[in-house]
């Protein structure tokens, strides 16, 4: 059975990729994922704020030296430049050497400033590709959608200018026209899109009367929004597409592949069940293919992707929306 797929120009043994999470933050976790069969591993993100803080610290140290005496540099400990980021680069280097599967580095930020040049260091450390997570809440009501889009595209262009390896964008679903935004990312040089990034809104702590940060893992129902967009875009956008969010079973993997995803990412299920759960997902994918008589992933990938005119898809989805709302059996809710 041939499970191979190509994502970002990378040949993957099968489509299931471990997406960014604390499991991919250190060498031990990355190796556990690779040994458990992940086709590729996306490292946990390096954040814009970490890079900027490091640059400021280095600048302050340099200034401190020049303000005192020229010999001051000689007093700095030899590892004065080493830091968290050097540690992350070292993990990346060693993962590339040992994991035997493509290692995708993740950069996470929100502005098009100098920090994006850090992508070059990730490339030099051996990353097979860069995943760019642009996480920004446009909280200013004076800021237009066009300006939000332009800012995101500029970040991508700068990262693309810094590296030669493929770059994917882990997109938010909240653009007013996600399809058009996906097309713009493609035009600006994205080699792939990850649909979608997951947003974590704050809750309210009623005892302390403050905003409360907590994180809930996804659930299988969360597959619906990205599944729709993977299906709508996979034939229309000329980049690789990775589906992300809500993959808890082999059936979810199959659904995303039928919609046209080139790779299918999972985090929550691996956090809950451990890296070995990759074997379960793969076994279920194989089982489904066997039952359906598919010899390869290529034989069914994209079978349910939207083709034809975009208008037809919009009309279909509108009709489906109406049907869902108007045929709902209200009695069934009380039986839950
Ligand atoms: C604890 C935790 C940490 C995460 N860290 C990152 C990260 O560093 N960078 C990133 O792009 N996404 C991160 N994510 C998001 C996941 O990569 C993924 O997009 C999200 O969990 C949805 O996929 P899932 O439904 O398979 O969990 C994190 C998710 C969790 C639960």
CATH topology (level 3) name of the largest domain: TIM Barrel
- Which sheet architecture does the biggest sheet show? 9 strands, parallel
- Ranges where pLDDT stays below 50 over 5 or more residues in a row are 72-81
Q: What percentage of the residues does DSSP assign to strands (E)? A: 5-15%
Tell me the number of structural domains.
2
Number of strands: 13
Instruction: Please write the string of helix (H) and strand (E) elements.
Output: EEEHEEHHHEHEHEHEEEHEHEHHHH
Fraction of residues in helix: 40-55%
Cofactor: FMN
Protein name: Dihydroorotate dehydrogenase-like protein
Organism: Gluconacetobacter dulcium
GO cellular component, one term: cytoplasm
Brief rundown of the structure:
Keywords: Flavoprotein, FMN, Oxidoreductase, Pyrimidine biosynthesis. InterPro entries: Aldolase_TIM (IPR013785), DHO_dehydrogenase (IPR050074), Dihydroorotate_DH_1_2 (IPR012135), Dihydroorotate_DH_cat (IPR005720). The protein has 336 residues and is α/β, with parallel strands linked by helices.
